[in-house]
Input
Amino acid sequence: MKRNYLNKVVWITGASSGIGEELARQFDREGARLVLSARNEHSLNELKASLKGSKNHFVLPLDLEKSDNFSALARKVMDEMGAIDVLINNGGISQRATASETSMEVERKMMEVNYFGNIALSKAVLPFMQQQKSGQILIISSIAGKFGFFLRSAYSASKHALMGYYESLSLEEEKNNISVTIACPGKINTSISMNALSADGNVHGVMDHNQASGMSVETCVRQIIRAMKNNKREVMVGGKELLAVKIKRFFPALFWQIIRKQKAT
Output
């Protein structure tokens, strides 16, 4: 049976831009009640004001690198909205630097934001979903969670970690009617490369060709929401780059011949 998100409370991290912002727009059209989170409160308020169901939505600033208050934030959402039906762990940062040049500070920041902050929020929300005996968690991973790639060592590591964690969580929480969908976008036309971290922690600041020529964010999010409605455990989203996942699985030698010839950006 397909899910219906009318009047459901959907909490979205990284909602101020890119896939997160478009998820907010499309879930707003589904009639959901949104909790919009990111670091940039001004952008979140602008987004909320632009949505049809603005009066039903709640802006809650959140920094994934500072997870100590996540339990309190989850309680705040419950007090304000009455439930947490869907948690969308979308917030994160990318990388554009070789492994040898990347500082340990950047390595740690990548894991803190993309992995530890991500699972900390899920762990804060889980008790409420367990009590409800229902819930859905969407994880925005990446095709980089399926294989390593140039200039993505720490980013790819963080996404690989999410895959293992949430596959385990999915099995454990089936008894509580809590489902997990892991989305693995490939090349999507967002500003993710602009905000990616370089070796020293400064922003990359360049719109890479892989992003500029990628699938539209609107199409990407439509496919993700369709997968959520159909309770899929995993969905790959993108263009021909997704073939690399199948090639690696069935023809690993060929995969390594192909992947080393791809442009890093």
Observations:
- The longest helix spans residues 104-132.
